[in-house]
Design a protein that fits this description.
heterodimer; A: 152 residues; alpha/beta; 8-stranded mixed sheet; 28% helix; elongated; B: mainly alpha; 10 helices; 88% helix; 0% strand; globular
Chain lengths: 152, 264
C-alpha cells in the first residue's frame, strides 16, 4: 500500500516536470545539430540580447547565438544561429527591430533576389542598426531648427 | 566594571567557538550520512517508507498552496500588466516567477516546516527515549538505519514537490487569467512558451530545489540528532530547524540566483 502511494507520488512529480518542459517551456527549441551560423556586423545593436529571436517575414527562423565587439572596426559582431532548412540569398538584409512599442528587440532578415544562398559561417553584408531614440529625437530637432532658419 | 566587560567579551568568544564547533560537528555528521548511504540503497524499502512520510504526506499542502499562489499571481499580475496594456504577457509573468523563484523557494519553505520539523522531532525523540543507543547496542548503526534513508527521501522528494508546485501554480494562473478574467488563451500559452527556456529556466529551477532539499534535510536531521535528550531540548531543536532552514533557503536562493540569472 505504501509502495503504491510512493509510486503515484513519483509519477506525479515526473509528470509535473514533463508538463513544465512541454507545455510551459519550449522544449522543441533549436538544438545545435540542425542549425548553421551566420554573422552580421552592426554599428549599433541597441538592446539586443543573446537568445533573441531571428525572424524573417515575422516567422522565427533562428536565435541570436552570441554578441561580440569587433575592436578593429568598432562595430558589434552578432552571430545568428539559423535553422538548417531555411536558406537565405547572399544579398539578405539584417536589421534590428523592436516588437511592439516596448517589446523586446529581434533581428529581422529580409531576403534579396540573388540566386546564390549564404553558406554556414558567411557574414551578411547589408545591415541596418537599431533605432536609438535619442539620435532620432535630436535629428528631428535639428531638422526643425534648420527649417526655422530657412523661413527667416 | 572592567570585570563585566571581560565577561561579555568572553561570552562573544564562547558563542563563536561554540558555533564553529557545532558547524564542524554538523559537517562530520553529513559526511558520515553520505558514507553510510549504501545501506539505504541496498534496502530500498527504508527509503520508500520515508518517501511516503516526507513526500506523499506533504503533497496536499504543496498542491493547494501552489494553486493559490498561482491564482493570486494571476490577479495581481493582471492588475499591473493592464496599466501597460500588455495583459497577454500574463502567462510569461506567472510561469517565469513560478518556475524560477516561487516554485523552488516556497515549496522548500513549506517542506521545511511540514517535513523538516517532523524529522527533527522524530529523531530527537528517538534519542531522548534512547532508541538510538539501543540500536547501537544491537550493533545497528543508527546513522545508516535511521538518518540516511530520511536524507535521501528528502533529497528525492524536494525537486518533485517543487515541480508539482510550479505546475499547479501555472494552472492556477491559467484559471484566473484565462477562465475568470478572459485573457486570450492562445497568447497566454504561446507567449509563455516563447519566454520560458528549458535549460535556462526549468533546469535551473530543478537545480535550485535539489540544493534546497539537501540543505533542509541535512539541517533537520542534524538538529534532531544533536538535540538535548529532554522534552525542552526536542522542542527547541524543532524550532531551530524551521528557523535555520528557512534562512538557509533564502540565503542559498540569493547566491544561486546571482549565479544563474545575471543580466542576459
Amino acid at each position: 500500500m505504501l509502495d503504491l502511494w510512493v509510486g503515484l507520488f513519483v509519477c506525479a512529480g515526473i509528470g509535473a516536470l514533463l508538463v513544465l518542459a512541454l507545455k510551459v517551456g519550449n522544449m522543441s527549441g533549436f538544438s545545435a545539430a540542425d542549425t548553421y551560423q551566420l554573422y552580421a556586423n552592426f554599428d549599433n545593436i541597441g538592446g539586443l540580447k543573446p537568445r533573441a529571436p531571428v525572424k524573417s517575414a515575422g516567422v522565427v527562423v533562428g536565435r541570436v547565438a552570441e554578441i561580440t565587439f569587433n575592436n578593429d572596426r568598432f562595430t558589434a559582431r552578432v552571430a545568428l544561429r539559423i535553422e538548417k532548412n531555411f536558406k537565405f540569398p547572399t544579398d539578405t538584409t539584417a536589421s534590428i527591430l523592436t516588437s511592439g512599442l516596448l517589446g523586446e528587440q529581434y533581428v529581422g532578415l529580409e531576403g534579396g533576389g540573388d540566386d546564390k544562398t549564404l553558406a554556414p559561417g558567411d557574414t551578411l553584408k547589408l545591415t541596418q542598426s537599431a533605432v536609438v531614440l535619442e539620435k532620432l529625437i535630436s535629428q528631428f530637432l535639428y531638422s526643425k531648427a534648420a527649417e526655422g532658419d530657412s523661413k527667416k | 566594571m572592567p570585570e563585566r566587560a571581560a565577561i561579555s567579551v568572553r561570552r562573544i568568544g564562547h558563542v563563536t567557538v561554540e558555533g564553529v564547533l557545532r558547524l564542524g560537528y554538523a559537517a562530520r555528521f553529513i559526511a558520515l550520512t553520505l558514507l553510510h548511504s549504501g545501506t539505504s540503497f541496498r534496502r530500498l524499502r527504508l527509503v520508500i517508507r520515508e518517501l511516503y512520510f516526507t513526500g506523499v504526506l506533504s503533497l496536499i499542502i504543496i498542491v493547494v498552496s501552489g494553486l493559490f499562489v498561482g491564482m493570486v499571481l494571476g490577479f495581481q499580475g493582471f492588475q499591473t500588466l493592464q496599466t501597460y496594456g500588455s495583459e497577454s504577457a500574463l502567462g510569461v509573468l506567472v510561469a517565469l516567477s513560478l518556475v524560477r523563484e516561487l516554485g523552488p523557494v516556497v515549496s522548500a519553505l513549506l517542506f521545511a516546516s511540514r517535513a523538516g520539523s517532523a524529522m527533527t522531532a522524530e529523531i530527537g525523540l528517538m534519542k531522548a527515549t534512547e532508541q538510538l543507543s539501543a540500536m547501537e547496542m544491537m550493533a545497528v548503526d543508527p546513522i545508516a538505519r535511521v538518518v540516511a534513508p530520511r536524507f535521501w527521501a528528502g533529497v528525492i522528494s524536494m525537486p518533485l514537490l517543487a515541480a508539482m508546485f510550479s505546475a499547479m501554480g501555472v494552472f492556477g494562473g491559467y484559471l484566473v487569467g484565462v477562465v475568470l478574467i478572459g485573457v486570450d488563451e492562445g497568447s497566454f500559452w504561446s507567449q509563455m512558451q516563447n519566454a520560458v527556456d528549458f535549460r535556462e529556466d526549468i533546469v535551473n529551477g530543478v537545480i535550485k530545489s535539489f540544493v534546497f532539499g539537501i540543505a533542509v534535510t541535512s539541517i533537520a536531521l542534524f538538529e534532531g540528532y544533536d538535540a538535548p535528550p529532554t522534552a525542552e531540548g526536542v522542542s527547541g531543536a524543532t524550532t531551530r530547524t524551521v528557523v535555520t532552514s528557512s534562512l538557509a533557503i533564502l540565503g542559498l536562493d540569493f547566491i544561486l540566483t546571482s549565479f544563474m540569472f545575471r543580466g542576459a
